[in-house]
TrEMBL record, chains A, B:
Residues 36-198 form the DJ-1/PfpI domain. This is Transcriptional regulator GlxA family with amidase domain. The lineage of its organism: Bacteria, Bacillati, Actinomycetota, Actinomycetes, Pseudonocardiales. Keywords: Signal. Gene3D superfamilies: 3.40.50.880. Transmembrane segments: none annotated. Residues 1-30 form the signal peptide. It comes from the Bacteria. It comes from Amycolatopsis roodepoortensis.
Length: 247, 247
């Protein structure tokens, strides 16, 4: 049954088909520009916030995605289960085409909002970015850096905090673009944001190609992801699960 | 405008609401059982395959998610952009309630399929799991370990390889359950799989709570994620982008 050992080892069909179609991806130009995408990690970040967008954006022709933190080394998630390596410290990075700030639980978000090294770095990098972006409570960190204007989105349970603290209007969309600042809603919304960014950076054709490349045809088995339709009980349960997973 | 410094630092509203509703999450029982979820990392894995499910499953009451690899330490993705820490070596882990094997590009998948240390470990752990699961080409690794029967899913471009090599029928669903083996389609399908697993492990109520906790209400800006509806040109472009991002 298992003749894997003797089968010619190309497990992905049609890898040569692109040549047959004479497809270009614009790589040459992208590589010459060398699209630099940086994602800021900090203690207690939520795992999917940076990794969802990184999966998508690392497929852009010529792009590099770099995980950055105050210091190089492993950075642990809110649940403490997983650590992702920061490959560069903020001191080593001064220019990015795209900056993405992920969200975190309460503790991680607050610590980042009070970390002047991170806030100064975000402001400095923001001056030259093409897009400055956030996922989940990452928008609160952009707010603490003074970068929010007019409208933004964030994690559903942080909407009131966003409006009261930064004087911007919360918009319940997957992502909200104001000037060059694009904020995304909670956690998984970073994936939708990433496809929007992919189309802005490389055009809709490439964005669609990446969508198929990562088979992003979501079909959740349940329909409970929208806070606007959730009961008070489900909201309370969600926040309880979130809090307990972070203890 | 920014009074963040003086605002009382609870950025998530309603965190105390759970107590008001008298909600239980079944934590006491789950903690006594200590649900152990292990994700196998190997060189060249695709970033979202393990991290999407880890985000969801780490919110299960009492659960721990552990990244495991042949050796402890950072394990790098297919694009080489990102490294996730393996916290345990396979030699350190003999029992898991849930095993998840992520997918990779061609090179990483083939190397894992030929790594007898990994295959032996997967077979050994599988004997006692409640669920043995895969994302993307991870199902080919389960196949190489001799664990596939009857039907399975995998990355769309590996469907022919799956059928010819392991004699199982490819099913174009987000996830396919056969006995205690649950395989998921490409990359992002691991998130849908994870909510299915969450409901199997902790019930639909908890799964729905986690869905709201990570605001999983996907709204892709494009509709190109389904290979069954994709043109030959788009398929070729997707595979070209995938291949070039791994160079």
């Amino acid at each position: 049954m298992n003749d894997a050992k003797t089968t010619r080892r190309t497990v992905l069909a049609g890898a040569a088909a692109a040549a047959a179609f004479g497809l270009g991806t614009g790589t040459a130009q992208a590589e010459s520009t060398g699209l630099k995408i940086g994602i800021l990690l900090y203690d207690g970040f939520s795992l999917l916030d940076p990794t969802g967008p990184a999966e998508v954006l690392s497929r852009l022709p010529g792009a590099t995605v770099t995980m950055i933190a105050e210091h190089r080394g492993p950075v642990r998630t809110d649940t403490r289960d997983v650590a992702v390596m920061a490959e560069r410290s903020v001191a080593e990075v001064s220019r990015l085409d795209v900056l993405l700030v992920p969200g975190a639980g309460n503790r991680g978000t607050v610590a980042a909002m009070e970390n002047q090294v991170l806030l100064d770095w975000i402001r400095r990098v923001h001056r030259h970015t093409t897009w400055t972006t956030s996922v989940c409570t990452g928008s609160l960190i952009l707010g603490a850096a003074g970068l929010l204007r007019d409208r933004a989105t964030t994690y559903w349970a942080s909407a009131d905090y966003l409006e009261k603290t930064f004087g911007v209007r919360y918009v319940a969309e997957r992502y909200v673009q104001v000037g060059k600042v694009v904020t995304a809603a909670g956690v998984s919304a970073g994936i939708d944001l990433a496809f929007h960014l992919a189309s802005l950076l490389a055009g809709e054709r490439i964005a669609r190609g990446i969508q198929l490349a990562v088979e992003y045809d979501p079909r959740p088995p349940f329909d409970s992801g929208d806070a606007a339709k959730a009961s008070p009980e489900l909201k309370a349960l969600a926040l309880k699960l979130l809090a307990e997973s972070q203890e």
